[in-house]
């Protein structure tokens, strides 16, 4: 079952003084059509409290709600899909657990990982890090533009149609060059939700990614 995948994906983050709900309210009012709720610091009751409210906001604005990990919540809230950050996860088993109706995304920092994600049936892949990021620190090598060029070329040569989104340390000035590599889109967190004006930042990214 082919799913709708948005080219600009907004990822919430734990930020002092700005709740996940507030981030989603502003992003959706600015036109966001894809929200990834990424919260790894709350218990199940707290997560569900957030998700129920965020789901209402997404429904009001016609946005897709994806939750990072936490697939145990699949039948407890109005969630459209899950993004699994564990690069060693068994996505065949996860798909079996979720069923076909849910959107399933995965993360990779290598081309081999992208190929595995495709073979295991994900609907899209986050590929990074593009540059230095503090949102999701890791020890993976930075991909830079060349890393995306190469990934797109390899996937095309193998005739693998997988929406690949650049992620990790992406700034507004990077977007035009990134899109010219042939990737499907970008996923952004800090450059939007830590900007002086979140709404203005989202709109600026949207103009460069989706135009």
Automatic annotation (TrEMBL):
Query: InterPro entries from the entry?
Result: Aldolase_TIM (IPR013785), ThiamineP_synth_sf (IPR036206), ThiamineP_synth_TenI (IPR022998)
Q: In which pathway does it act?
A: Cofactor biosynthesis; thiamine diphosphate biosynthesis
Where are the coiled-coil regions? Answer: none
Keywords (alphabetical) are:
Thiamine biosynthesis
| Any one GO MF annotation of this record | thiamine-phosphate diphosphorylase activity
Q: Where is the Thiamine phosphate synthase/TenI domain?
A: 10-192
Q: What is the lineage of its organism?
A: Bacteria, Pseudomonadati, Bacteroidota, Sphingobacteriia, Sphingobacteriales
The answer on whether this UniProt entry bears the keyword Membrane reads: no
Top-level taxon of the source organism = Bacteria
The record ties this protein, via Pfam families, to:
TMP-TENI
A biological process term (GO) from this entry: thiamine biosynthetic process
The name under which this protein is listed is Thiamine-phosphate pyrophosphorylase
């Amino acid at each position: 079952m082919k799913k709708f995948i948005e080219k600009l994906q907004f990822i919430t983050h734990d930020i002092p003084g700005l709740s996940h709900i507030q981030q989603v309210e502003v992003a959706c009012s600015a036109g966001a059509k894809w929200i990834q709720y990424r919260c790894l610091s709350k218990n199940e009751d707290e997560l569900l409290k957030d998700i129920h409210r965020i789901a209402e906001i997404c429904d009001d604005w016609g946005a897709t709600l994806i939750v990072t990990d936490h697939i145990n919540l699949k039948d407890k809230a109005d969630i459209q899909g899950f993004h699994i950050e564990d690069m060693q996860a068994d996505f065949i088993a996860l798909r079996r657990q979720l069923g076909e109706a849910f959107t399933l995304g995965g993360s990779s920092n290598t081309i081999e990982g992208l190929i595995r994600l495709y073979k295991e049936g994900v609907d899209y892949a986050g590929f990074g890090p593009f540059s230095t990021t503090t949102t999701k620190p890791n020890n993976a090598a930075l991909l830079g533009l060349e890393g995306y060029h190469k990934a797109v070329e390899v996937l095309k040569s193998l005739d693998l149609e997988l929406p690949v989104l650049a992620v990790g340390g992406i700034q507004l000035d990077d977007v035009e060059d990134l899109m010219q590599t042939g990737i499907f889109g970008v996923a952004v967190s800090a450059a939007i939700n830590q900007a002086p004006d979140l709404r203005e930042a989202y709109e600026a990214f949207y103009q460069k990614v989706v135009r």
